[in-house]
Amino acid sequence: MLKVVDLEKSYGKKKILNQVSFLLNRGEVVGLVGENGAGKSTMLNILATITKATKGTVQLGDYIYGRKVEDIRKIVGYVPQELSLWEEFTVEQNMLFFSKLSWKKRTKEECRQLCLNMQLEQWKEPVKSLSGGMKRKLNIAISLLHDPMLILLDEPTVGIDMKSKNEIGKYLVKLAKEQGKIILYTSHDMNEITTFCDRVYAIGQDPFYTNLLTNNGVQVDRL
Ligand SMILES: Nc1ncnc2c1ncn2[C@@H]1O[C@H](COP(=O)(O)OP(=O)(O)OP(=O)(O)O)[C@@H](O)[C@H]1O
After folding, report:
1. Average pLDDT per block of 10 residues along the chain, 223 residues long
2. How many helices (H) and strands (E) would you count in the chain?
3. All domains of the chain, ordered by start, with CATH?
4. What span is annotated as the signal peptide, if there is one (predicted)?
């Protein structure tokens, strides 16, 4: 369970998040939507322990944010908007490099299996030769190396074709349903959000997203 209570974040005098509270349960895929600059990445960065909240509390399982950050990082996976890959290295070399940085030890076969689970089969190919969709899949596979409980993805499907989008979306649902992961992800593609998310949080004052998704039968709560 991820419990966020009365979270606030300001940059200088500018308040980005104001008294945000919500609860995510294991096995859920939840969307986070809102216009550019609404605070989606800020929210994910706080949950990923990259940015500190100005006020409020966050609890993930038995861990309270703000105390031992290393304990939280062991159970949180974060996929940033930008690809963080070694372009000159092969898929295999990227997976093995990042697995060495992880606290959880993985065999080469397990690393490969994580890629295959994502329908990423180009194990021996350099990243620079992969399509955008394959790179996105590798970025996600790397975030799963330490088997996190909470997976945060910042626009994981931006700029990729519908087939890869569909494969990634289906895989996220499978991870949540079969392994009890908590998945929170942002996207500007409302079709994708409607297809893969159990429910959605809309951030910001503008009711545009709330109205659009509610009209499509999606459960939306405003933050
Ligand atoms: N380090 C920072 N210092 C000052 N302001 C910041 C900082 N990071 C973000 N902001 C501001 O906070 C607001 C929210 O930004 P954020 O990136 O969280 O929005 P977003 O909803 O993710 O937008 P997008 O859809 O464009 O990715 C923006 O006005 C942004 O300029």
Report:
1. 97 94 97 94 96 96 90 94 94 96 93 95 97 95 96 93 93 96 95 94 88 90 92
2. 8, 10
3. 2-222 (3.40.50.300)
4. none
Q: Which residues line ligand 1 (CB under 6 A)?
A: 11, 16, 34, 36-42
d(CA 79, CA 122): 20
pLDDT at site 203? 93
- Taking the CA of residue 51 as reference, the ligand 1 atom at the shortest distance is 1
Ligand 1 centroid to Cα of residue 3, in Å, is 22
Q: Quick one: which atom of ligand 1 is closest to the CA of 155? A: 27
Strands, E, within the chain: which ranges? 2-11, 14-24, 29-33, 55-60, 63-64, 76-79, 150-154, 182-186, 199-202, 220-222
CB 111 within 8 A of CB 118: no
pLDDT, tens digit, for every residue of 93-138?
A: 999 999 999 889 899 999 999 999 999 999 999 999 999 999 999 9
Q: Is the backbone of residue 37 left (phi > 0), alpha (psi -120 to 50) or beta?
A: left
Cβ contact 63:69 at 8 Å: no
At residue 67, the pLDDT reads 79
Q: What is the whole-number distance in angstroms between the Cα of residue 194 and the centre of ligand 1?
A: 24
Using CA positions, which residue lies closest to atom 18 of ligand 1?
39
